Structures are given as C-alpha cells and as structure tokens.
Amino acid sequence: MPESQREVQALLALSQAERPQRVRCLLAHFGSAQAALAAADWTAAVGASAPERRPTPADLAWAAEQWRRLGSAGGRCLAPTDADYPQLLGQIAAPPPVLFALGPDDLAPPAVAIVGSRKASDSGKLIAAELARELVAQGIGIVSGLAFGIDAAAHQAALAASGRTIAVLGCGADVPYPRAHTPLYRQIREQGAIVSEFAWGAPPERGAFPRRNRIISGLSLGVVIVEAPQKSGALITVQHALEQNREVFAVPGDVRSGRNAGCHQLIKDGAKLVEHVDDVLEELTIWASPLPQSAPVPAPALPPEDESVYALLSRQPRHIDELAQHSTLPPATLLDVLLRLELDGLVDQLAGKRFLRRTG
Q1: Which residues fall within 8 angstroms of residue 278, CB to CB, at 6 or more apart?
Q2: Environment class of residue 189 by beta-carbon count within 10 Å: exposed (0-12), middle (13-18) or buried (19+)?
Q3: Distance CA 225, CA 262 (A)
Q4: Cβ pair 219, 113 in contact under 8 A
Q5: Proportion of the chain in helix, strand, coil states, percent, rounded to 5
Q6: pTM of full prediction above 0.70
Q7: Residues 70-104: tens digit of each pLDDT
Q8: Is pLDDT larger for residue 321 or for residue 172?
C-alpha cells in the first residue's frame, strides 16, 4: 500500500473515532495520523481529562472501505497537510481534518460565495445569476451550497458562463442533495467541484448544514448575500465569514416583502452594499481580472527583517494576526515591514488587513 494511502486511511480512522478538534490536536502533536495511531499515550496531545476513543479494528476497516469507494468514484480525500488542500480553508479556526472532493476543480482561489434564501424571488435569482456571471468573467470562482433558490441560480450561471463553481454539501460528496438538483450536481461534478467533510455515503442531516457553512465561507475571499429573511441559514455563513476575516456583502431589496430583512440588517451592521459587481470587485481589486500565469515576484536582496516577513507570504491572503503568530517580530514592527514591502511593490494589502505577494 502506498505511503499516502496508508496516511489517508489512518486519518479517516481517526476522524471516524474522534471529534475534529481532537484530530487536529493529535496531528499537530504527532505529525501524522499514522504516528498518532502508533502512539501508546495521547495524554500530551489531548489532555489527561479527555476521554480517549482510539480507533478500533472496525474503524480501520471502515476507513479502508471509504478509500475503496472514493477511488471507484474518482474522488480525492484531502488533509490540511496536503499541498492540494485549499490554503484559505486551512487558515480558518476549525478546518475539516478530512475534505472529500469530486470533480476537476483544484479548489484554488480566487472564489466568492453567493448564498441566500431557498425561497428566493425571480428577481433575487436573476441578481444572483448576474453577479455570478460577472464574477466568473473576471476569473473568480463561485462557491455555494447547491440549495434551492439563490445557491442554484449562482451555480447555474457560473457553469453557463464556463466559469469555476464549487458546491459544498451537508452530506457525503457522493450524495446528490436535494435530489431535484441531481442534474445540476452532475454538471458541477463534471465541470467544477463537489466537496464535503462528511463521510462517503453520509445522508443529509439537519445539523450538518450549519456546520458546512463554515466551509463555504472558508473557501471564499468574501460572501455575498442575496435575499435573506431575518432568520436564514445564509446568515450563519455570514457569521462564519466574520470570524474568518472574510469580506461580507449584501444586496438590498424590497423592504415590504420580508425577503430582504436579513440583508438590510447586515448593511446596517456594516456589510458592503452591493448594487453591481463592481461593488464586490473594488473590495477584491487584486482579483479583478483573470490571474496572471507568471510566477510571484522574486524578492531582491532584503534586510533580514523584511526577508523574514516576505518568506511568510504567498499568493494566498494571510491575515495580520496569523502572520504575527508565525513571526518573531513585535506586531508594530511587523506592520511597518509589511507596509514597507507594499511600498516597494512586493506585497499587496487586501481589505481586513490581509496581505499577499504581488505577481510580476
């Protein structure tokens, strides 16, 4: 069995037996799922007071069966340590320890989430479709949840415009849901990507959908809400987006219908009002045109402080707080270096104090 397969199966077995937070602790402490399974004592990784639920032979057999079914479907199983694991998603507070994926899309940014009411009006669906078309025309992918209403309109418009789209499911990646969207599911699987943190074959369950919403926002540079009443699942995605330092956008609408009350409250609370795609693009100016294929600008001879900060950056936006965690510089010095690199044309700053290397 290849080493990569052994590691994935060990990770699947851990994920079946343990809560995601404990799996992350085990991986951080032992360095790999296989090492965690081989360790006799997990106390240093998860604490002495935590009850221990080590994978059983049944869990290992289940993991082997998951791998077999995944391979038969041509799917992928990604861990946060994999090069193909989406970097933006890996930066959130609770990234999925296992991400199942179907389809050709590499899950790489840039992407924007478009979500909203399942019972959307025709006008709302038209607005979502228009935004999706115009975003993919600028090389920006569309992330949504394959639900009725706004989600479906955004996915369909992205596909029709030959753009990238990613559907995040609250069930197994191999389970089309809702069933009425099976044709749309198949089209996304052929042209984009279907992703889920839930096991292969897992049925849809009510509590899974709020949980998957953190992945929708985690894969995205920002979240656009089109039609959301005061109590809407889309607002859960907004909460995750705010916690993840993502941009939040809201489309205003009819004040009498009640369909837009959630959007209007978001705007009152500081979300960017969206009347046109330019309202989104101006907050994401670095992605306002298809990404160039040239390599990132090589750093010239830099002072040691500048070089250490530049080494922490890539083409994936990183928040200032995350950079501070990995830098030995005081926060004030770190910010001064970032601004200096920006003035030198080596770094771009996005809204929300996020930084990335500039391409040549």
Answers
A1: none
A2: buried
A3: 9
A4: yes
A5: 45, 15, 40
A6: yes
A7: 888 999 888 887 888 998 998 898 888 889 999 99
A8: 172
